[in-house]
Design goal:
It is a single chain. By secondary structure, the chain is an alpha+beta fold. It is 23% helix and 32% strand. The chain has a five-stranded antiparallel β-sheet, with no helix packed on it. It has a five-stranded mixed barrel with strand order 8-9-10-12-11. Strands 1-2 form a two-stranded antiparallel ribbon. It is flat.
């Protein structure tokens, strides 16, 4: 808006996004402001924002007073992203100079995609001329989810659920299939998360129906993506009020009839 000066806090996300860009080259605060098209009159607020980020440890003002992201060290907290091949990455909650932390096969504990985890850096390797930090998950801080949708299959006497999507990439062992049968879509609650040493185990909490059927596929998508079903009591009350107040003759009188 005209006449409104930006506050230093308004620059926080812009600065972090700019500095985290792979094409960014470390710059002094004045040069950084120029690269971000900051007006001269706003430079004071911009400089305060950079200083505040440095004080909070989210950026570093290092050699030659250049602004960079902090190195990855100590315990890293972020979101785990798994790969079907067994390895994964931890996406730090706060941007770092090295982007995501690579987690090799067997080093993710029992983390699955979407979990908030704590990890530590173990080593640094050179890949295609670039430094890659490698580490391991040391703690599961918060589970992203514990319920999954998948298809129930049978292998001999053992029952498995093959999860939909890419969040969980391993079959889930089921001991009690209840009334479900092979080929059914089900919702399963994990009671044991998978790791390098143990398989995933779960219990069926809902049978959706045969895979491939239209209504079952719709239910599967709804459950898998946690899409709310139905409407709140408040919304239904408001809808009834609007319907009761609707007057067809009054509406037709104020509209042009194109029928």
């Amino acid at each position: 808006p005209v006449g409104v000066r930006p506050m230093s806090s308004d620059y926080t996300n812009r600065i972090l996004k700019h500095v985290a860009d792979r094409r960014y080259q470390p710059k002094k605060i004045r040069a950084l402001a120029k690269a971000m098209d900051i007006a001269e009159d706003d430079y004071g607020q911009f400089r305060q924002a950079v200083k505040a980020l440095a004080k909070a440890g989210r950026v570093v003002i290092g050699a030659r007073n250049a602004v960079t992201l902090p190195e990855m060290s100590g315990k890293i907290v972020g979101t785990f992203r798994g790969n079907p091949k067994g390895f994964g990455f931890v996406v730090p909650a706060s941007p770092t100079a090295h982007g995501d932390l690579y987690i090799p096969v067997g080093a993710a504990r029992d983390a699955v995609t979407g979990d908030t985890v704590a990890a530590v850096v173990d080593s640094t390797t050179l890949t295609a001329g670039k430094r890659m930090l490698e580490g391991r998950v040391v703690e599961i801080i918060e589970r992203g989810r514990s319920r999954f949708v998948g298809e129930l299959v049978r292998d001999g006497r053992q029952w498995f659920v093959i999860p939909d999507g890419k969040t969980l990439n391993t079959p889930i062992l089921v001991d009690d299939v209840q009334a479900a049968g092979a080929g059914d879509k089900v919702v399963i609650e994990l009671i044991q998360f998978p790791s390098a040493r143990r398989e995933a185990r779960g219990v069926i909490v809902e049978k959706l129906g045969p895979a491939g059927r239209y209504d079952v596929d719709i239910k599967s998508v709804i459950r898998n993506h946690h899409i709310p079903e139905g409407f709140s009591p408040e919304a239904l009350t408001e809808t009834r009020r609007v319907v009761d107040a609707f007057n067809l003759d009054a509406e037709l009188a104020r509209r042009e009839d194109r029928r």
